[in-house]
Amino acid sequence: MTRRASRPSSSRARRGVPSATSGAALTSLLALEAKRGGDDASVMLDKWRDSVDGSEAVFTSSAEYLSTVKPEGFSKDERWFLLALLAEAVDDDELGPACEALEERMEEEAGKWPGNDDETLDDAQLREASPLYLTMSDAWSSLRLAIEVNFFNTIGLPDAARALVSDGNEWERALRDGEATLLGVPRIVLTADDDPFGILMK
Length: 202
Hints:
By secondary structure, the chain is mostly helical. It is 58% helix and 0% strand. The chain is built from nine helices and no strands. The chain has helices at residues 27-35, 41-54, 56-66, 76-87, 95-110, 123-129, 131-154, 158-166, 169-183. It is globular, with a radius of gyration of 18 Å.
């Protein structure tokens, strides 16, 4: 799971940064926690994401629960993975409209390039073809980064905010490992940093 997995979409659910718990709306998250690493984990993850999309109370309670260090339950990497999914849905009263305006301008610019009438050009190709699209795309990424960093700081996770800003090995490894252990799939080993003891790359 990378910082920029796809082109931006204005269809993203818009949620504010949670400031306080809105109740114990944690049924789907606790069900996921109970099934983590098992055959049903993927199904429970989808159910939790659906409940987050459908309820501000579930979003807020999930953010508070996941931001609290607990001796049992989800690991740190799993919590960061789940919080990263929540961060994608967070909006900002001031920066959010600017993101939406950039998305519209990017769509307009993308439509000017031959071959994109059927959306055959992906984000990387558009960034290479159009200097204007590249500039707006980078600006959009910076605004989204600021929104998500603010989210992590607000819920008391400055370490996650720092890892996200650096976009270094710590953040990417945490999300990969968190997703892998949460869903009970083999951990992805991409570099020697992912396998410090040289066991899995053999």
